[in-house]
Give the backbone structure.
Amino acid sequence: MVAISDLTPPRSRSTSVSTTNSDAALPSFESLAPPRPPTTKAAEETHVLVDGLKDVVKLKVDAGPGCGGIAWPAGEVLSRYIAYRHQINPSYLRNKKILELGSGTGLVGIVAGMLEPSAEVWATDQSILLDLMEVNAELNLPTSTTQRRNVHIAEYNWGEQVPSTIPIENIDVVLAADCVYFEPAFPLLVKTLCDLAPIGKEIEILFCWKKRRKADKRFFIMLKKYFNQYIIEDDKSGEKEIYNRQGVNLVKLVRKKQ
Ligand SMILES: C[S@@+](CC[C@H](N)C(=O)[O-])C[C@H]1O[C@@H](n2cnc3c(N)ncnc32)[C@H](O)[C@@H]1O
């Protein structure tokens, strides 16, 4: 396991955010990222169309629990990518154990579960988002119509131990969308990625994010010590150009050998 102290970020020049006290109350996403209109309004239902899914994804969104309560662009990009991979290779997610970090509304994990009923998905986030994620999982994968829902909602705070309900050793795929925005959480997220991908373990980590602030580079400097990044080149023709123009990037992370 990697100790968080090994991941201390370079000292920030910003005086507004402490990088040393991870227990401090978290400022809102909007106070840290340049303002941009959310893709949805507060407390409403929205539909996300993902090619390859028979049904639209119904999402209750609620800006109340913070930034994760609405759907962000990287989540939609990552959802479309896994759906495309599944379309060209239907066994891609078959029987896979999938973990989503910082799931927010639950979108990406729900899409994974809808694409492949034999997959087992854990959509995770902080406790404040769990009710919303549960509502969304139930909207799209109602327990009344499926014998057993294959998307589980779980609290997982980066930097902490993996909850015992998640079979960490057996996770095959890790998905993370729009999780780079809050500097004090950078070392926590890197530690979590290291915990999920110990040296030598075969695991696919798909990491999608939207470039926002210069400070986000610090995350990638920390990450580089432990992971190589490979740009996803096998997305549907033309997709990458579209999302890159919107500042969204999608990479595969591979743990370095040492
Ligand atoms: C910008 S939102 C992205 C939500 C979703 N992945 C999407 O693309 O719509 C970032 C998410 O990371 C979660 N997050 C932030 N810090 C976290 C931490 N320390 N542990 C777990 N989740 C965290 C937030 O609660 C939020 O849901």
About this structure: Residues 8-40 have pLDDT under 50 and may be disordered.
